[in-house]
Q: What sequence folds into this?
């Protein structure tokens, strides 16, 4: 049943943005625009080394700075170790709000300083004396998985353990479909590729920030530019061991997120600061912190080996992928799961083997960003498709038309294909760029293989 | 710490007196485009700061073929009022509009690599720096002002008061190669000034930026051109010499390998531009 | 050194403020005067979200000590927003979807205001160069450039 166009008031129309007027008048209120008298500023003491054992912290000089109010360490945090995806059953907890005896990345938060002014807080931070024994660090995903690499996680590995809750202990997200080795033997061509990407920083124009206000009724109002209000509220409540209804999160106005404001980083410690001082607390990232501390998109290394027939059909795909999660989980275990579900591509490949690792290194922790897990998979898949086309001497459009999955095909992770549209999109794209596709390809569609 | 005092002297005399009185604990700034980011970030925490915006040091005077430029003349002023295309081009390639309205000619001498895209043009024109202190003034060639990475010839109590820039006598070319067209750090910047004697090169100045601890002269490249006709062979020889003698570094903008390669390419372009 | 009293013209009105040494115009506007249209994206002069006009010229307020604007004329977005409705640039930004998160918008509008005051009929290249000090992470710049050109057209190239 089609809906008559005359009845549509919103679909197909250009609708002015609700927040547009506020934006062009400069009246939209962002977290840092809120000024509450008596607000304390929070600045973080951060690890100067990539990997180390904390021996001692000396606050005595910092305490003398005029305007210094107090320092917070891990001892002040009710539940210091957490992992943000615990809310969807991911575990175990592994990231400290404030470092305990070790630091796993350069920039990791060690202690929070609260002061009357931002300058006083910065000065106090600079006067905190850290005694850290530097440990060997590892920065390469494959090096991190070799025996002898410094081990970063308390459970003794440098990888996230998948399916532990089902009694299994997989070092990777595993997909098995058909028999790739047998198919490789039958293939006319073997095409291999290695695809590496770098971490990417979202660099939103507005930096990460929150402002906590203690209310007379014992609740805390938290103004925050998190992209995930309820997610952050829940995690904050768990970390602070307080009932969820003690927190009132106010937000939704984000000066650029792109996935960079989904980690629960500033709120719990700022709320704790407010709890311990009875004062409003503002914690805003400097631009340096936004670049060097806030999560990035993870770097990926993807190895692809395909078995291809003369007629262009890909009959086998074996993928080994490594996501560099940096020092902590954050959203990466989920990214790797998404990756495993998508790295075979929108193509009907009868034999697929995927091992996708979530690896820990001493890099800045990574997290979500625009299609994380799948964006880099798309890059690898499509460059690989072009490589295949070049290797077997086939037109790169044709190789995709032939292999595109159709409705009813089974994907490698056992989902049935529904509403496939790759072929229709490619036809539309070819038309837009003025590329004439041969009739044979124009006759194809996504709902059957025809002919 | 929060700055305890901020001075805004209204004359050069007042400025050097304050400098003499407070010594190295006084941070001197003009446009603030270099000093304020560090202060805002908490990297620099000066107790005392002196701003030179009101010290009467922004002027451009022309006399006897020499431009005397006050140290706090802004890059926008150079762009709009200097009437020297070579220097206008250079000023144009520093930062963006608002930064040029604040950043100064003198300040650019202190910009850490790869910045310094205005100063490199001054090098190519044999500019001199006039330093002032309570004791008086002294003038030295810009080549001698730079003494190393983030170091210079300033003695305690001295500040940069003026740039003396001989107007170009020959043909000039300025090429900045960055990752973007505007508001971008340099991969390499070339500032060239050649004086011809008929078809032969009589005098050559080739200054490079972003391939050394500060803007540098490509001395060997210059030598390769003296007395030669400005043909493809001479241009090739000079470009190769420049690529060899430069001291590129790797940063987030470009690798040292790439910078060196691009010196060879861009010096060639600049000389070809002059050859016409 | 105690705080200083500084007098200057802000959005057409004479104001007198008391500032600590080296307090920036950005901090004064945002934290003391509650004029928060001027934003704080980097405090390094790198993003342009703090752009204000001083005597009609764009400057980065995060790098500008308040004492330096003694006796000068400062204009912020609050000063060019009409009491009712929008000015032509604001209208163009709104209609052309030159806004997403909105954080770069005040800076963009201030620079565009100065551009059109200097050059009522800028070419596309001139618009691009004018806004080259303002970073937008959302729109990809194209709608912003269009909006500025549209605003120029609407005022028929007149000041």
A:
């Amino acid at each position: 049943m089609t809906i008559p166009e005359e009845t549509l008031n919103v679909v197909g129309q250009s609708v002015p943005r609700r927040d547009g007027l506020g934006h062009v008048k400069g009246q939209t209120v962002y977290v840092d625009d809120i000024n509450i008298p008596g607000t304390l500023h929070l600045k973080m003491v951060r690890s100067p080394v990539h990997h180390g054992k904390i021996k001692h912290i000396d606050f005595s000089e910092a305490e003398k700075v005029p305007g210094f109010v107090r320092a917070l360490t891990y001892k002040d945090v009710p539940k210091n170790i957490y992992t943000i995806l615990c809310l969807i059953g991911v575990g175990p907890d592994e990231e400290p709000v404030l470092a305990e005896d070790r630091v796993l990345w350069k920039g990791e938060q060690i202690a929070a300083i609260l002061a009357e002014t931002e300058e006083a807080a910065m000065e106090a931070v600079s006067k905190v004396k850290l005694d850290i024994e530097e440990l060997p660090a590892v920065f390469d995903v494959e090096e991190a998985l070799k025996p002898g690499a410094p081990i970063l996680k308390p459970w003794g590995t440098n990888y996230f353990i998948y399916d532990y809750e089902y009694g299994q202990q997989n070092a990777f997200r595993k997909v098995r479909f058909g028999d790739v080795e047998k198919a490789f033997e039958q293939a006319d061509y073997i095409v291999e590729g290695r695809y590496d990407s770098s971490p990417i920083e979202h660099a939103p124009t507005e930096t990460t920030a929150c402002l906590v206000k203690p209310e007379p009724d014992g609740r805390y109002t938290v103004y925050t530019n998190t992209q995930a209000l309820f997610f952050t509220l829940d995690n904050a409540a768990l970390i602070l061991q307080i009932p969820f209804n003690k927190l009132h999160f106010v937000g939704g106005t984000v000066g650029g997120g792109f996935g960079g404001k989904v980690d629960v980083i500033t709120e719990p410690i700022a709320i704790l600061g407010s709890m311990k001082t009875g004062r409003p607390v503002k914690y805003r990232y400097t631009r340096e912190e936004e670049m060097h501390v806030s999560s990035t998109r993870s770097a990926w290394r993807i190895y692809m080996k395909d078995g291809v027939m003369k007629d262009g059909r890909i009959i086998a795909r074996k993928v080994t992928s490594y996501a560099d999660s940096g020092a902590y989980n954050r959203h990466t275990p989920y990214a790797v799961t998404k990756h495993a579900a998508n790295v075979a591509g929108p193509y009907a490949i009868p034999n697929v083997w995927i091992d996708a690792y979530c690896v820990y290194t001493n890099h800045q922790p990574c997290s979500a960003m625009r299609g994380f897990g799948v964006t880099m998979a798309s890059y690898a898949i499509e460059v690989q498709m072009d490589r295949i086309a070049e290797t077997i001497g086939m037109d790169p459009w044709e190789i995709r038309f032939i292999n595109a999955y159709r409705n009813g095909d089974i994907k490698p992770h056992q989902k049935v294909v529904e509403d496939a549209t790759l072929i229709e999109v490619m036809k539309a794209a070819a038309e837009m760029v003025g590329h004439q596709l041969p009739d044979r390809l124009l006759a194809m569609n996504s709902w059957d293989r025809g002919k | 710490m929060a700055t305890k005092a901020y001075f805004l002297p209204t004359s050069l005399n007042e400025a050097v007196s304050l400098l003499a009185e407070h010594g190295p604990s006084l941070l001197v700034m003009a446009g603030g485009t270099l000093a304020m980011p560090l202060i805002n970030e908490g990297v620099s925490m000066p107790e005392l700061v002196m701003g030179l915006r009101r010290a009467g040091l922004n002027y451009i005077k022309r006399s006897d073929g020499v431009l005397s430029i006050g140290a706090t003349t802004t890059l926008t002023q150079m762009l709009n009022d200097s009437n020297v295309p070579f220097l206008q081009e250079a000023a144009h390639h520093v930062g963006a509009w608002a930064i040029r309205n604040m950043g100064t000619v003198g300040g650019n001498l202190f910009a850490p690599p790869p910045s310094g895209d205005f100063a490199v043009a001054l090098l190519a024109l044999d500019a001199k720096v006039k330093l002032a202190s309570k004791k008086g003034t002294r003038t030295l060639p810009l080549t001698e002002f730079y003494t190393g990475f983030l170091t210079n010839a300033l003695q305690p109590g001295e500040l940069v008061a003026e740039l003396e820039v001989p107007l170009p006598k020959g043909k000039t070319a300025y090429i900045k190669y960055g990752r973007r067209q505007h508001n971008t750090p340099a991969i390499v910047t070339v500032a060239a000034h050649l004086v011809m004697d008929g078809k032969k090169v009589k005098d050559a100045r080739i200054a490079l930026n972003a391939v050394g601890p500060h803007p540098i002269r490509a001395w060997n490249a210059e030598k390769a051109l003296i007395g030669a006709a400005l043909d493809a062979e001479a241009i090739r020889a000079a470009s190769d010499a420049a690529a060899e003698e430069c001291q590129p570094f790797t940063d987030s903008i470009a690798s040292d390998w790439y910078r060196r390669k691009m010196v060879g390419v861009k010096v060639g372009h600049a000389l070809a531009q002059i050859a016409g | 050194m105690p705080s200083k009293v500084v007098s200057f013209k802000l959005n057409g009105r004479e104001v007198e403020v008391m500032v600590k040494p080296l307090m920036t115009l950005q901090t004064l506007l945002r934290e003391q005067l509650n004029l928060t249209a001027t934003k704080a994206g980097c405090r390094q002069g790198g993003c342009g979200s703090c752009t204000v006009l001083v005597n009609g010229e764009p400057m980065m307020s995060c790098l500008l000590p308040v004492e330096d604007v003694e006796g000068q004329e400062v204009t912020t977005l609050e000063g060019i927003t009409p009491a009712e409705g929008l000015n032509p640039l604001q209208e163009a930004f709104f209609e052309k979807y030159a806004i997403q998160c909105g954080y770069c918008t005040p800076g963009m509008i201030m620079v565009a205001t100065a551009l059109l005051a200097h050059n009522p009929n800028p070419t596309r290249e001139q618009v691009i160069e004018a806004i080259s000090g303002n970073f937008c992470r959302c729109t990809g710049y194209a709608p912003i450039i269009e909006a500025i050109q549209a605003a120029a057209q609407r005022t028929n190239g007149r000041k």
Observations:
- The mean pLDDT of chain A is 96.
- DSSP finds 13 helices and 19 strands in chain A.
- The interface with chain C takes residues 14, 16-17, 19-30, 32-33, 35, 202-207, 254-258, 286-287 of chain A (CB under 8 Å).
- Chain A has two domains: 32-135+202-292, 164-200+295-415.
